[in-house]
Amino acid sequence: MPLLRQAMGGWTARKGCVCMDIMQAILDIEDKAKEIVESADEVKAQQQEKFRDALEKMQADAKEKTQDEIASLQKTFVQSRKEALEDIEKEYQQKLEKLETLYQSKMDHWVTEITSEIIGK
Predict the structure, then answer these.
(1) How is residue 16 annotated by DSSP?
(2) Are 2 and 23 contacting, i.e. CB atoms less than 8 angstroms apart?
(3) What sign does the CA torsion over 63, 66, 68, 74 have?
(4) Full 3-state SS string of 34-83
(5) What does the alpha-carbon distance between residue 98 and residue 106 come to, in Å, rounded to a whole number?
(6) Residues 27 and 5: beta-carbon distance below 8 Å
(7) Which pLDDT score is estimated for 94?
(8) Is 116 helix (H, G, I), strand (E, B) or coil?
(9) Rounded to whole angstroms, how far apart are CA atoms 75 and 60?
(10) Distance between CA atoms of residues 112 and 3, nearest Å
(11) CA dihedral defined by 25, 26, 28, 32, rounded to 10 degrees?
(12) What does each C-alpha distance from 80 to 16, 85, 90, 94 come to in angstroms?
């Protein structure tokens, strides 16, 4: 109960009707002010809820975007590693082919040379 109404409980009409009208007007103003405060509190609560919803949506969007970027980076990394490994495999395959060619072309010479070294001594 508003303080002014409590105070009126013990009030007596000493100055007549004008004082009662003033008191009633003050009480009406107090009631209207209370309604305005309640309305403002409702608007504040609604705005806070909208803000929370917007914040949650922004966080969810940011999380989704980050996850998409991470997935894209992982895909790019895996692809670049795959390409690098393919290049390394090609390089080693070429070296192996060169060694095989060298072996084929020099095999008879090496066998003869090794045999003559062993038999010659």
Answers:
(1) -
(2) no
(3) negative
(4) HHHHHHHHHHHHHHHHHHHHHHHHHHHHHHHHHHHHHHHHHHHHHHHHHH
(5) 12
(6) yes
(7) 96
(8) helix
(9) 22
(10) 122
(11) 140
(12) 95, 9, 15, 21
Q: What is the mean pLDDT of each run of 10 residues along the chain (121 residues)?
A: 49 60 91 95 96 97 97 96 96 96 90 85 63
* Token code pair at residue 63: 């999380």
59, 36 in Cβ contact below 8 A? Answer: no
pLDDT value of position 9: 52
> Hey, what are 49's tokens?
């809820």
Is 83 strand, coil or helix?
Answer: helix
Residue type, 27: L
Two structure tokens written together for 13: 């009409």
Whose structure tokens read 């002014």?
Answer: 4
pTM: 0.50
Residue with tokens 């070294």: 117
**What residue has token string 């004008």?**
18
Q: Looking at residue 121, what is its pLDDT?
A: 63
